[in-house]
Amino acid sequence: MNSHRLPGKGRRMGPIMGHTMHYRRMIITLQPGRNARGIITARHRGGGHKRLYRKIDFRRNEKDIYGRIVTIEYDPNRNAYICLIHYGDGEKRYILHPRRAIIGDTIVSGTEVPIKMGNALPLKESTSTNMPLGTAIHNIEITLGRGGQLARAAGAVAKLIAKEGKSATLKLPSGEVRLISKNCSATVGQVGNVGVNQKSLGRAGSKCWLGKRPVVRGVVMNPVDHPYGGGEGRAPIGRKKPATPWGYPALGRRSKKRNKYSDNLILRRRSK
C-alpha cells in the first residue's frame, strides 16, 4: 500500500492501492438518487467520478475448491476493499476483503472446511466442522442460496451467540439479535478497512468525487423547499416538533413497516 498527499489547500494523508488487476467489470448507467421516473428519492447524491461496477461473489458457491488471494483492490461502489481470488479450477472471482487477509492467503468454501478467516461455511454442525459460539462472521445469508446480505460494510462483524433446533442466533453490527436458519452460510472473520469512518477527506472536492453533494439546513431554505424555511433573519423552525422536508414527524418516529414476516425472527431490536 502506497501513501500520497491529497492535492489542495486542505490536503491530508490518504491511502491508495497499487498494482491491481482488473477483472469482471461492467459499465452501468446511473442516475444517482433518482428513481425510474427521474424523480429525486435520495437527496444529496449526484455527480462524482464515473464508476465501473465489480461483480462480487456473495454466494461463495465454488465449493471445496481452494483459492488464492492475488490482489487487494479499491472498489468505488462500497467502502470495503475487495480481493481477487484465483481458484484451483481456473475460476476468478471478487470477494469482500476479510480483515488481516494478505496476498497469498488461501480460502475455501463448503460444509467440511476449517474455521479460518475468509472461509465460508454453513452455521449448522457437520461431521468434521462445528462453528463455535462466539465466532466473528460477516457476509451472512438470510435465505439459503441467495448469497450474503448481512454484515457486508467495511469493518462490519456479527457474532454467533447460540444454536437451537433449526435456527442460529446472531448479534448483528447494529445490535439487533435475530434468528437465522442454520443452513445459511457465513464467512469467518471481519470485513476489512475498519478505520474508513475515521478517514479525513481533507476538502470538499474529495466528497464531490464520491458523488456526495452538499447538505443544506432546512432553516435557511425558502418555505417552498422545507417546513423550516422562511422567516425574517435567524428565525426558529416555527414548529413544536422536528419534521422531515416533506412534513412528516422526524427524530423518534419508527419507519419500519409493521407486521413484517421477519418480526418473529427478531429477538431484540437494534440499539439506538
From TrEMBL:
Compartments in which it is found: Plastid, Chloroplast
Protein name: Large ribosomal subunit protein uL2cz/uL2cy
Gene Ontology MF terms in the entry: mRNA binding; rRNA binding; structural constituent of ribosome; transferase activity
Region (Disordered): 230-272
Ranges for domain Large ribosomal subunit protein uL2 RNA-binding: 33-109
Domain of life of the native organism: Eukaryota
Domain called Large ribosomal subunit protein uL2 C-terminal: residue spans: 115-249
SUPFAM superfamilies in alphabetical order: Nucleic acid-binding proteins, Ribosomal proteins S24e, L23 and L15e, Translation proteins SH3-like domain
Coiled coil regions in record: none
Gene Ontology cellular component annotations, sorted alphabetically: chloroplast; mitochondrial large ribosomal subunit
Keywords, sorted A to Z: Plastid, Ribonucleoprotein, Ribosomal protein
InterPro entries linked: NA-bd_OB-fold, Rib_uL2_dom2, Ribosomal_uL2, Ribosomal_uL23/eL15/eS24_sf, Ribosomal_uL23_CS, Ribosomal_uL2_bac/org-type, Ribosomal_uL2_C, Ribosomal_uL2_CS
Record-level GO BP terms: mitochondrial translation
Family (UniProt): Belongs to the universal ribosomal protein uL2 family.
Pfam family for this entry, one: Ribosomal_L2_C
Record note on quaternary structure: Part of the 50S ribosomal subunit.
